[in-house]
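Students often ask why we bother encoding 3D structure as a string. The short answer is that it lets us treat folding as translation between two languages. Here is a chain of 100 residues written in the first language.
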Amino acid sequence: MVPSNPAEVIIQGVTRDGRTFRPSDWAERLAGVMSSFRPGGAQPGSHLSYSPWCIPTVIDEVKCVIVNRELRNHEPMAWDFVMNFAKDNALKVSEGRFEK
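And here it is in the second language, the structure alphabet:
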């Protein structure tokens, strides 16, 4: 059973109509933009690593970005940016689990 409010959402690199999202490095680009949003705020050199709140990954050969809900609590505008990116590009978003 999945909790009613899982700690993460997963943005999948697949559009709602089943097409693979391009460019192929979209997940790394999105996570890179979000790198300064992290617990304790941006620190010197924080742009050199991904935020623990927005991590690119591959699940079942599909590029994804795992977004922790803590981002919404600490940086609501950054949360809106990521969620609007998924919405504007018609990407599949799952609540804390990967759906094929």
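Translate back mentally: Helices lie at 26-33, 70-74, 76-88. Keep this in mind for the problem set.
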